[in-house]
């Protein structure tokens, strides 16, 4: 097997799969409150097509999968897909990212299907600010979902929090304390230009260094954890007192493009070599009318065409034509 290596020497073994572009909340930095046009259901990949793609990807060296959306738990019978994917020989890691609203309801079925790792998207522990960000009053459901997942034995459960300046400063420290109390790693994500409404400005990005300073001032010193996998997107820290850890995905202030090992499959069957890619490869048409070798060739061509990285910090940066919910988190 020839590994999936691009022209910059980056090995790709991590596949993120969006199973739907639909979502049950409306985070302002991701999608409008109304008027969102979702993909027709017949344009969305079936579970059988996703399973076939993953089996082909494994022959190219893919070992890690993450299921995303939209909100993946709104996809009917998702546990059936989890069972299919967890049974594929060669997959070493299977995880899911969710907003947590439906997690308490589905945690048992997902666990029984083979899922063990969950990331929950949660920007705030404040009910009013949660409503402001998501345009929904579902904080209690999310917190219940986290509790249920931990009680069931999922591990590790992590929380992803998007950091928008002049909005969530008051949430940085409470989230870190919440994580310390419950053994949950909080991962703070710098606000990225992936909204569908053109709201992003660099001045609205709460930077990783600013958040680190807040946490150290209010809680205590942080020590960077030596990264056992330099291709991981988060820079992780542990508290010097030994209780808890936090991570920072600093795509804006500390781009990690040169270590990227990820490819992405959208819910409508487009393969993307970067979250910010302008171009994408239609593998759905190949899955529906071509051979496994044709799919393999398309994946290799996509990885070979991968650019050196996004240009968020450059005047040449062009936002991707799709918003985050359509690409997959």
If you had to describe this structure to a student in words, what would you say it looks like?
With 329 residues, this protein is an alpha/beta fold. The chain has a single domain (14-327), classed as TIM Barrel, CATH 3.20.20. The protein contains 10 helices and 12 strands. The chain has helices spanning 47-58, 78-86, 103-113, 127-134, 139-152, 169-182, 208-218, 284-287, 292-304, 324-327; strands at 14-18, 64-68, 93-98, 117-121, 157-163, 185-190, 222-224, 235-239, 245-249, 262-265, 270-272, 281-282. Strands 7-8-9-6-5-4-3-2-1-10-11-12 form a 12-stranded mixed β-sheet. Strand 2 (64-68), helix 2 (78-86) and strand 3 form a beta-alpha-beta unit. Helix 1 packs parallel to helix 2 (78-86) and helix 6 (169-182) packs across helix 7. The chain starts with 13 loop residues before the first strand and ends with a helix. The model has no long low-confidence stretch (mean pLDDT 92).
Task: Supply the key terms.
alpha/beta, 12-stranded mixed β-sheet, 329 residues, single chain, globular, 10 helices, TIM Barrel
Q: What's the CATH C level? A: Alpha Beta
- Give the low-pLDDT segments: none
- State the major sheet: 12 strands, mixed
Rounded mean pLDDT is 92
CATH superfamily heading: Aldolase class I
Major sheet: order of its strands?
Answer: 7-8-9-6-5-4-3-2-1-10-11-12
Terminal-residue CA separation: 29 Å
Number of domains: 1
Q: In the CATH scheme, what's the topology name?
A: TIM Barrel
- Alpha-carbon Rg, integer: 19 Å
Q: How many strand units?
A: 12
Number of helices: 10
Shape by Cα distribution = globular
Kindly name the structural category. alpha/beta
Please indicate the percent range of residues in DSSP E strands (runs of 2 or more): 15-25%
CATH architecture: Alpha-Beta Barrel
The helix/strand series, from N terminus to C terminus, equals EHEHEHEHHEHEHEEEEEEHHH
> Roughly how much helix do the residues carry, as a percent range?
25-40%
């Amino acid at each position: 097997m020839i590994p999936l290596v691009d022209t910059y020497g980056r090995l790709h073994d991590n596949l993120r799969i969006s199973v739907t572009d639909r979502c049950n909340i409306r985070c302002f930095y991701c999608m409008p409150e109304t008027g969102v046009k979702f993909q027709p259901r017949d344009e969305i990949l079936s579970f059988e097509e996703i399973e076939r793609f993953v089996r082909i990807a494994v022959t190219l060296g893919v070992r890690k999968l993450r299921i995303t959306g939209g909100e993946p738990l709104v996809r009917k019978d998702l546990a059936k897909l989890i069972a299919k994917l967890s049974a594929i020989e060669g997959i070493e890691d299977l995880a899911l990212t969710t907003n947590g609203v439906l997690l308490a309801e589905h945690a048992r079925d997902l666990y029984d299907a083979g899922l063990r790792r969950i990331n929950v998207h949660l920007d705030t522990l404040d009910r009013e600010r949660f409503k402001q960000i998501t345009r929904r009053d579902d904080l209690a459901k999310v917190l219940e979902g986290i509790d249920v997942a931990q009680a069931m034995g999922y591990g590790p459960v992590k929380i992803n929090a998007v950091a928008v300046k002049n909005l969530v400063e008051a949430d940085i420290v409470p989230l870190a304390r919440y994580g310390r109390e419950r053994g949950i790693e909080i991962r703070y994500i710098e606000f990225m230009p992936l909204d569908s409404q053109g709201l992003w400005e660099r001045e609205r990005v709460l930077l990783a260094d600013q958040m680190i300073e807040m946490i150290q001032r209010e809680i205590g010193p942080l020590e960077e954890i030596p990264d056992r996998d330099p291709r991981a997107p988060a820079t992780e820290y542990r508290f010097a007192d030994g209780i808890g850890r936090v991570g920072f995905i600093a795509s804006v202030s500390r781009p990690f493009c040169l270590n990227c090992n990820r490819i992405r499959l959208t819910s409508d069957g487009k393969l993307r070599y970067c979250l910010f890619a302008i171009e994408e490869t239609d593998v759905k048409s190949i899955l529906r009318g071509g051979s496994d070798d044709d799919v393999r060739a398309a994946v290799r061509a996509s990885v070979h065409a991968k650019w050196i990285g996004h240009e968020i910090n450059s005047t040449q940066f062009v936002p991707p034509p799709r918003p985050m919910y359509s690409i997959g988190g």
